[in-house]
Design a protein that fits this description.
Layout (H helix, E strand, L loop, with lengths): L6 H17 L4 E6 L6 H14 L3 E6 L9 H20 L3 E3 L4 H12 L10 E3 L10 E3 L7 H10 L16 H10 L27 E4 L4 H12 L9 H9 L6 E5 L2 E6 L2 E6 L4 H4 L4 E2 L6 E3 L3 E5 L5 E4 L9 H8 L10 E4 L13 E5 L1 H8 L19
Parallel strand pairs: 1-2, 3-5
Antiparallel strand pairs: 4-5, 6-9, 7-8, 8-9, 10-13, 11-12, 12-15, 13-14
Helix pairs in contact: 1-5, 4-6, 7-8, 7-11
Length: 391
């Protein structure tokens, strides 16, 4: 669980510790020191004492990167989630608890009304950082509770907490939202998104592809394109909605691109794959494989080598050099998918291969899409741990 030391997270600490003790589960509290305030180290240490007083294991993560002059809040949020994911993976955890409340939902709604791009909160959704957060889910048990009620609950029990000065600093977007709501701005928390977005037809396709119904809703389509494209950020604004409307036009064949993905609509289905042509602008990903260590290639495949010397390269521009058996296998793939397939090479002068016994390639696209669309509604549905994470 994320433990900042503020009232929401301290309340979550006490509730989660009691829950874990009753059920024989191990709870690990993680405090991220963003190093944005001179007293952050002291606050972090106090959070550690609070966790240890309840018998909860505790660890500290520090954001050591240079701090950007612009977009600090977004950069800090991404860094925090990446460090939480790192700690969760090290602890063998699959679920990260956070102390977001009903007030956070209201503040996020206010920020979006001012033109902000903060995503909508759900009580259960994948870690928002990719690929660091692969295989990890966020759970927000307090998301329907008011912040004032949690603080009253703490006060009755004599439990203290600290308030981050950033919460009242008007240079911070979240502080401006709190001030506006406290001053009487009428903001309703947007309803929680539905638990699932049914989507079928992905299992029979080669790795990295999604085949979905043409009457797909905009939210599911946005999840599909970001998963197939290997990126991290969902398309914002009206782009996914506009594309969903175009895709839904009956019987019209069309091809479009969005968020690094190619969407091909034909008959009653759409095919969503990686847009390999995008590499012409930024360079195709070529990744050496450290021995025995999993890496994520192009945001779509987790690759591990059991023998040294291998490199992952894209099929684009190399299809003609594949051995006959690999060309026959790829011939059964959708043509749009073939250039974005991962190939393995020992060196540039040696013909690449689609797969070899010395290398394990795991498709992340479908796993990620299932998590993003609510098809893993419980911890037990998450499947085997990824990249060394324990059960």
């Amino acid at each position: 669980m994320a433990l900042s030391g503020g009232g929401d997270s301290v309340a979550l600490l006490h509730l989660a510790a009691a829950w874990a003790e009753c059920r024989g589960r191990r709870l690990v509290a993680v405090t991220v020191d963003h190093r944005l305030h001179p007293d952050s180290a002291a606050w972090t240490a106090e959070a550690g004492r609070a966790a240890r007083a309840l018998g909860v294991a505790w660890t500290r993560q520090v954001w050591t990167d240079d701090k950007p002059a612009a977009g600090l809040a977004a950069a800090a949020r991404r860094a925090r989630h990446a460090l939480l994911a790192e700690a969760a993976r090290a602890a063998g955890a699959r679920v990260i608890l956070t102390g977001h409340t009903l007030d956070d939902r209201r503040e996020a709604a206010w920020l979006r009304a001012q033109g902000g791009t903060l995503g909508r909160m759900r009580d259960w959704n994948p870690s928002p950082v990719w690929p660091e957060g692969r295989g990890l889910m966020l759970l927000r048990p307090l998301i329907n509770l008011a912040r004032a009620d949690l603080r009253a609950w703490l006060a009755v029990r004599g439990i203290g907490w600290f308030d981050d000065p950033a919460n009242v600093d008007p240079t911070h977007p979240r502080a401006r939202a709190r001030a506006a709501i406290a001053a009487g701005a009428m903001v309703e928390a947007e309803p929680l998104p539905p638990e699932s977005m049914p989507a079928t037809g992905v299992a029979a396709l080669p790795a990295g592809a999604l085949r979905l119904p043409r009457d797909i809703d905009a939210r599911t389509l946005a999840a599909a394109v970001v998963c197939a494209g290997g990126g991290e950020t969902m398309p914002r604004g009206h782009r996914a909605g506009d594309l969903a409307s175009r895709v839904a036009e009956p019987r019209r064949e069309m091809v479009a691109t969005l968020s690094g993905a190619r969407i091909i609509a034909r008959d009653d289905r759409i095919l969503v794959v990686r847009e390999a042509g995008e590499w012409a602008r930024g360079g195709a990903p070529v990744s050496p494989l450290p021995l025995g260590q999993a890496i994520v290639w192009d945001g779509r495949f987790e690759v591990t080598a059991a023998t040294p010397g291998w490199c992952v390269v894209p099929a684009r521009g190399r299809l003609g050099r594949l051995p006959p058996e690999d060309r026959r296998k790829l011939a059964g793939w959708p043509a749009a998918l073939r250039p974005a397939a991962p190939l393995l090479a020992l060196e540039e002068g040696v013909a690449p291969r689609l797969a070899v016994a010395a290398v394990t390639v795991r498709d992340l696209v479908r796993v990620r899409f299932a998590m993003a669309t609510g098809e893993t509604p419980h911890e037990r549905d998450l499947g085997p741990p990824q990249d060394g994470a324990g059960a």
